[in-house]
Design goal:
Layout lengths: L1 E16 L6 E12 L13 E8 L1 H5 L8 E12 L2 E14 L5
Parallel strand pairs: 3-5
Antiparallel strand pairs: 1-2, 1-4, 2-3, 4-5
Length: 103
């Protein structure tokens, strides 16, 4: 398990019952900003951030849904295998601060 400080710019909670199967579903998604890697060559440019998203348990998001976004948080992640594919899931979120909006 890894813990990394990330800027969380949004969250999504989607719950309901599938019209197709009749099974209940509960999906949590965290949207973060991930810093771009430095450029590989002198003539290349790489600046800023890129949006990233992680799946997580909805209960994790219920703890932070009342906060004004964006926030900075310690995000615990774990790599799991799903359908023979490595996937990073969020296992915990601990808010550190609210990001100040530019004036």
């Amino acid at each position: 398990m890894a813990v990394e400080q990330k800027q969380i710019v949004g969250i999504e909670i989607s719950e309901g019952v599938s019209k197709k199967t009749g099974n209940a579903y509960s999906i949590g998604t965290i949207h973060t900003m991930t810093k771009l890697a430095p450029p590989m060559g002198a003539d290349n440019v790489s600046k800023g951030y890129m949006g990233d998203k992680y799946q997580c348990d909805v209960e994790i998001l219920r703890k932070i849904k009342h906060l004004p976004f964006p926030i900075v948080a310690d995000v615990s992640t774990e790599d799991v295998m799903r359908f023979n594919k490595r996937e990073t899931i969020v296992t915990d979120v601990r808010p550190v601060e609210t990001v100040k909006k530019a004036a």
